[in-house]
C-alpha cells in the first residue's frame, strides 16, 4: 500500500512540475509573440491551442496511448462551452480593466472557489489552510497589483470571469472523480467544444479589444513559427491543467497558478529585464511563504486522513476477524466438525 501511495505522490509532484514548466514557457513564448512580434489576438490564439490539443490527443488515442471513454454528451458539451466561455471572459476582463484590477480578479478566484465548495459540496477547509491562502493572496497582491481603476463594464466582465472559471474548475475535478475518467479522457472529449466557442467568438473578441482583424494580419514565417511553438506548448499546458485539478483540487491549482505568476515576474526581471522593485520582491517572498504554509497544512491533513482511513488490526471487532468461509459437517461417526476456508478443524463436543 505504501508503494501505491508513493507512486501517487510522485505522480502529483510530476503533474505540478509539468504544469509550472509548461505554463511559464508559454507565457514567455506568448509575450514574445504579442509584445515583440505584434500578434495581439489572444482569444483566437487560444482557440488554436485547444484545436491543436484535440488533434494531438486524437492521434495519441489512435496509436493506443490511452483509451477514450464516452461521457454523457450533455455533460461534455456544457463543460466544454463553460470552459471556453471562461477563457473569453478572462480575456475581456483583461481588455476592459487595468492590469491591477485584472490581477485582483485572478486573486478573487481562490476565495470564491473555497466558498462554492464549502456551500455546494460541503467541503471543509481547516483554519491552517485558510490562513495560508490569506498569506498567499496578500503576497501576490503586493507583488502584482498596482493600479485599481474601476469601471462598470469591466467589473461585470470580471464577475462573470470569476464565476465561470470557478465553476469550470470545480466541474473538472468533480467529473473526473464521479465519472472515473482520466484527465486525458476528459480533455479529449471536451476540447473540441472549448475550441469551437473560441474559434467562433475569438476573432470578434480580439477585434473588440485590439481594433484590428486577425484575418487582415500579415503573417511572417517568424510569427508562424512562434504560433506553432505556442500551440505545441499549449498541449502540455492544457493536459497538465486537467491533470493537476483531477489529482489535487481546484484550490491547489489556483495556488499553483500564483506560483507561476511569481516565477513569471522573476523570469521577466532576470531574462527580459522588466522593471522590478523592492515591493515586487517583498510580495513574492510573502507569497512563497504562503505557498509553503499551504503545502505544509495540505500534507499534514493528507497524512491525518490516511491514518484515519487505515483501521489497526487490534481495533477490529471479533466479527471482522471471523473467517469468511466457515462450514459445519458431520463425519462418518456423526461427530460435528468445522471447516474454515475448506480446512478441517477440531470442534468442541456438544454438551
Radius of gyration (Å):
27 Å
- Series of secondary-structure elements, N-terminal to C-terminal: HHHHHHHHHHHEEE
Strand order of the largest sheet: 1-2-3
Structure summary, number of beta strands: 3
Instruction: Give the strand content.
Output: under 5%
**Alpha plus pi helix count:** 11
Label the structural class: mainly alpha
Major sheet size, sense and barrel closure: 3 strands, antiparallel
**Overall outline:** globular
| Uncertain residue segments | 313-327, 338-351
Mean pLDDT: 83
* Straight-line N-to-C gap: 46 Å
What is the helix fraction of residues, given as a range?
over 70%
What's the gist of this structure?
The protein is mostly helical and 351 residues long. The protein has eleven helices and three strands, in the order αααααααααααβββ. The longest helix is centred in the N-terminal third of the chain and has 35 residues.
Task: Provide a descriptive summary of the structure in words.
The chain has a three-stranded antiparallel β-sheet with strand order 1-2-3, with no helix packed on it. A hairpin with a 2-residue loop joins β2 and β3. It is mainly α. It is built from eleven helices and three strands. Residues 313-327 and 338-351 have low confidence and may be disordered.
List keywords for this structure.
globular, disordered C terminus, mainly alpha, 3-stranded antiparallel β-sheet, 74% helix, 351 residues
Produce the secondary structure layout.
Elements: H1 2-36, H2 42-62, H3 73-96, H4 99-120, H5 127-144, H6 152-178, H7 183-210, H8 221-247, H9 250-270, H10 278-309, H11 318-321, E1 326-330, E2 336-340, E3 343-345
Antiparallel strand pairs: 1-2, 2-3
Amino acid at each position: 500500500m505504501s508503494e501505491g501511495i508513493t507512486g501517487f505522490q510522485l505522480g502529483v509532484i510530476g503533474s505540478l512540475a509539468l504544469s509550472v514548466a509548461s505554463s511559464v514557457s508559454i507565457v514567455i513564448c506568448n509575450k514574445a509573440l504579442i509584445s515583440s512580434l505584434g500578434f495581439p489576438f489572444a482569444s483566437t490564439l487560444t482557440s488554436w491551442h485547444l484545436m491543436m490539443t484535440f488533434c494531438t490527443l486524437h492521434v495519441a488515442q489512435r496509436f493506443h496511448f490511452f483509451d477514450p471513454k464516452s461521457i454523457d454528451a450533455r455533460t461534455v458539451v456544457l463543460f466544454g462551452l463553460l470552459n471556453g466561455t471562461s477563457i473569453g471572459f478572462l480575456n475581456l476582463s483583461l481588455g476592459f480593466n487595468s492590469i491591477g484590477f485584472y490581477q485582483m480578479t485572478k486573486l478573487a478566484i481562490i476565495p470564491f472557489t473555497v466558498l462554492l465548495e464549502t456551500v455546494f459540496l460541503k467541503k471543509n477547509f481547516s483554519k491552517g489552510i485558510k490562513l495560508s491562502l490569506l498569506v498567499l493572496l496578500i503576497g501576490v497582491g503586493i507583488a502584482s497589483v498596482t493600479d485599481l481603476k474601476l469601471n462598470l463594464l469591466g467589473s461585470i466582465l470580471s464577475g462573470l470571469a470569476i464565476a465561470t472559471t470557478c465553476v469550470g474548475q470545480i466541474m473538472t475535478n468533480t467529473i473526473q472523480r464521479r465519472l472515473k475518467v482520466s484527465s486525458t479522457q476528459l480533455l479529449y472529449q471536451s476540447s473540441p467544444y472549448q475550441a469551437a466557442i473560441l474559434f467562433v467568438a475569438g476573432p470578434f473578441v480580439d477585434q473588440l479589444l485590439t481594433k484590428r482583424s486577425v484575418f487582415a494580419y500579415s503573417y511572417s514565417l517568424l510569427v508562424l513559427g512562434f504560433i506553432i511553438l505556442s500551440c505545441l506548448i499549449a498541449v502540455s499546458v492544457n493536459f497538465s491543467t486537467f491533470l493537476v485539478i483531477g489529482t489535487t483540487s481546484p484550490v491547489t491549482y489556483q495556488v499553483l497558478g500564483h506560483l507561476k505568476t511569481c516565477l513569471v515576474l522573476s523570469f521577466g526581471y532576470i531574462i527580459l529585464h522588466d522593471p522590478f522593485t523592492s515591493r515586487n520582491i517583498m510580495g513574492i517572498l510573502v507569497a512563497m511563504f504562503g505557498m509553503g504554509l499551504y503545502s505544509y497544512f495540505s500534507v499534514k491533513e493528507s497524512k491525518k486522513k490516511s491514518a484515519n482511513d487505515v483501521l489497526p488490526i487490534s481495533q477490529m471487532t471479533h466479527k471482522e476477524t471471523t473467517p469468511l468461509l466457515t462450514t459445519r459437517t458431520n463425519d462418518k461417526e456423526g461427530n460435528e466438525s468445522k471447516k474454515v476456508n475448506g480446512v478441517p478443524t477440531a470442534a468442541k463436543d456438544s454438551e
